[in-house]
Amino acid sequence: MAKEVTIGKTDVKTTKLGLGTNKVGGHNLFPGLKDEDGYALVKEALDAGVVLIDTAYMYGEGRSEEIIGDVIQDYDRSKIVIATKGAQDASNGNKPNNSPAFLKQAVEDSLKRLKTDYIDIFYIHFPDEATPKDEAVAALNELKEAGKIRAIGVSNFSLEQIKEANKNNQVDIVEDHYSLVYRGAEKDEWAYLKENQISFVPYFPLASGLLTGKYTKDDYAKFEKQYSQDQFTTILSALDKVKTIAAGHGVTVAQTILAWYIKNPAIGAVIPGARNADQVKANVQALAVDLTQAEYEQIDQAFVVFK
User: Fold this and answer.
1) Helix (H) / strand (E) containing 247
2) Which residues form the signal peptide (predicted)?
């Protein structure tokens, strides 16, 4: 199984399992986070051989980037792939702004917070309503040509917006909401992305913890806004099948689900988040889980109703 992937049409290479860092400094998203935990879990990821660190301005309005920037000073920068995202305009209530001037400044601000002279992947985090998407990407392409970013991404774009952004074949990667219980991207985006050599990275791969296998039918109230009672029952039944496969490999349900994404050829990399270093260690172990093709298809079929 190929554990290293190339991002889009670029020379950026990464392992198939990265680290999502919305819980690193993301005080605005998760109350009660401690900065020291953020420092420790980024260090743990890098020490464990994780290459891709995925962050964003909105994770703590720059704090996540600052913590990562501090940590990477003690590591070989050339062996780390940093992905960050920008679009939220602090001068306008953090509403999305894709104007060329704003995005260029967003990259400069991220470079300062990350304490580096280049960003491996820079995503437009959310689309705005006004800016033609090919013009927004063209501005980032100027920075790519200047060596300030190595790959251009978009996130939370519809297929039509992705196509507009990629009018000049300058989009390298798409990050979007996707999991085994939220599979719309398979039919909406994947064919176009494959045809245009654009990598795909899912966020919320463990569906906010639902796919870890730790919940029972008594926990439905936590998920009732997202799933009907029938859907929740279907998910628990599917996870029972995953538990059997996980037991055969001597690993957890979460590690088995992550291994499914790692094996999926349509997925460039998977970036589970973590709240502490122990969770990072557990996620990294998913790289050692080698699902058979039959097990891969069994998991796929268990969640087929969500396609």
Assistant:
1) helix 229-249
2) none
Contacts of 162 by beta carbon, 8 Å cutoff, 6+ apart: 154, 171, 174, 189, 192, 193, 198
Q: What is the CATH number of the domain that holds 40?
A: 3.20.20.100
φ, ψ of residue 9 in degrees (nearest 5) = -100, 20
Mean pLDDT of the region 290-297: 98
Cα separation, 241 vs 280, in Å, equals 25
Task: Tell whether the model's pLDDT for residue 3 goes beyond 90.
Answer: no
**Cross-strand pairs, 83:** 54, 121
Domain containing 275: what range? 4-209+252-290
CA distances for 159 relative to 30, 144, 163, 182, angstroms? 30, 23, 6, 16
Instruction: State pTM to two decimals.
Output: 0.96
Residue 59 annotated among the catalytic residues of the structure: yes
Could you give the count of Cα atoms lying within 13 Å of 143 in the half-sphere of its Cβ?
28
Label residue 192 exposed, middle or buried (CB < 10 Å: 0-12, 13-18, 19+). middle
- Asked whether the predicted pLDDT for residue 224 surpasses 60, the reply is yes
Q: Are 246 and 252 in contact (CB under 8 A)?
A: yes
Closest CA to 296 of 247, 254, 262: 262
